[in-house]
Amino acid sequence: MTHHTLEATKEVFVPFFGRIVEVKDMTAREKYFKVELPKPLGHVPGQFVMVSLPGIGEAPISISCGPRNDCMLELVIRKAGSVTGVLHTLRPGQLMGIRGPFGNGFKIETFYGKDLVFVCGGLGLAPLRSLITPVIENREKFGNVIILSGARNPSEELYRDELKAWANKATVIRCVDSIANMPWDGDREGLVTAPIPGLNLDPSKTFAVLCGPPVMYKFVVIELDKKGIPHEQIFIDLERRMRCGIGKCGHCQINARYCCRDGPVFRLSDVKDLPEALA
Ligand SMILES: Cc1cc2nc3c(=O)[nH]c(=O)nc-3n(C[C@H](O)[C@H](O)[C@H](O)COP(=O)(O)OP(=O)(O)OC[C@H]3O[C@@H](n4cnc5c(N)ncnc54)[C@H](O)[C@@H]3O)c2cc1C
Ligand code: FES
Q1: pTM of the model
Q2: Residues 203-217: pLDDT tens digits?
Q3: What does the pLDDT read at residue 1?
Q4: What pLDDT is stored for residue 2 in this prediction?
Q5: Tens digits of per-residue pLDDT, 14-26?
Q6: Are 183 and 153 a contacting pair, CB within 8 Å?
Q7: Which SS3 state, helix, strand or coil, does residue 236 take?
Q8: What is the CATH topology of the domain spanning 14-101?
Q9: Ranges of residues in the chain whose predicted pLDDT is under 50
Q10: Residues with CB under 6 A from ligand 2
């Protein structure tokens, strides 16, 4: 290995440290973190970082903010186990290790002049916010924009204030599976798929972008098929167990593809022959 590639390899395996500047409870399970990095991350929407705690471990976490020139990084972390559990105890001023950005992400230019339908289920809104934010900020570059957001109940809804603000520039339909006797100022009780039959979509220029629990993809695709949206125009953001994040360890393999390097964003036409990809 040349000196140059050795240095490059070291850089992707050795984390740098980010200082937490803000932590907020979003729901009972999810916290928002704003982290100041030593230099701008230089990411594109849909990419992720590996977040680590020395001596504890590492977890892939989606970048939740759009591309930015400052040194800030925004993450939404659900408490799921050993790493995320300790991350939830961190306070402003403390450090977390970061590697990345990794993954392919979205090329935003693909959507210029097109209509967009975002389908965000639960925590799926966290990664899709990295694309929705620049779309809303450059609204004139896109056609119709529809954002369908689904949560299990009102207390599980993420980014409520932003969803309401986006409604000034896009069609936002906020759904909950069940209102569950909680205060709710959203649009519908029912699954996030329920509004799709009522949408007026032009298959020649509509792109759909999906992120949510695996079961959601199947049902959203059934509805989009009825609207005639070609599978080349459906993007899905997939999650797989990961270790290295850079296509070396094979942990995240989906048949011949590595989710960390070739994804996590895939066109449905590229993965639909891989049934396990959507399971
Ligand atoms: C590309 C990508 C982006 C992600 N983005 C986010 C994000 O923005 N926010 C967020 O909170 N989480 C995200 N995740 C999931 C997150 O990485 C896992 O929840 C985390 O690794 C769990 O680590 P842990 O050590 O806390 O839990 P562990 O102690 O490892 O596991 C706790 C429990 O969660 C299960 N689990 C662990 N990892 C996964 C997984 N990837 N899928 C399903 N079940 C799992 C385990 O089986 C176990 O039951 C993302 C994952 C990927 C691959
Ligand atoms: S996580 Fe190692 S190859 Fe993808």
Answers
A1: 0.93
A2: 999 999 999 998 899
A3: 44
A4: 47
A5: 889 999 999 999 9
A6: no
A7: strand
A8: Elongation Factor Tu (Ef-tu); domain 3 (2.40.30)
A9: 1-3
A10: 242-245, 247-252, 258, 260
Domain ranges of the chain: 14-101, 108-271
**In degrees rounded to 5, what are phi and psi of residue 239?**
-110, 130
For Cα atoms 71, 5, 98, give the angle at the middle one, nearest 5 degrees.
30
pLDDT in tens, 88-106: 999 999 999 999 999 999 9
| Ligand 1 center to 83 CA (angstroms) | 9
- Is the bond into 264 cis (omega within 30 degrees of 0)? yes
The rounded distance, in Å, linking the Cα atoms of 271 and 269 is: 6
CATH of domain 108-271: 3.40.50.80
What pLDDT score does 257 carry?
87
The CA 85 to ligand 1 mean position distance, Å, reads 11
CA distance 61 to 245: 11
Rg of the chain in Å (alpha carbons)? 19
**208-246 burial string, b = 16+ CB within 10 Å, else e?**
bbbbbeeebbebbbebbeebebeeebbbbbbbbebebbb
Q: How many CA atoms lie within 13 A of 159 on its CB side?
A: 30
pLDDT at 9: 57
Q: Residues near 126 by Cβ (< 8 Å), separated by ≥ 6?
A: 30, 62, 64, 75, 76, 158
* Choice from 31, 47, 62 to test ligand 1 binding pocket (greatest atom count within 8 A of CB): 62
CA distance 170 to 99: 34
Q: What is the rounded CA–CA span in Å between residue 3 and residue 119?
A: 45
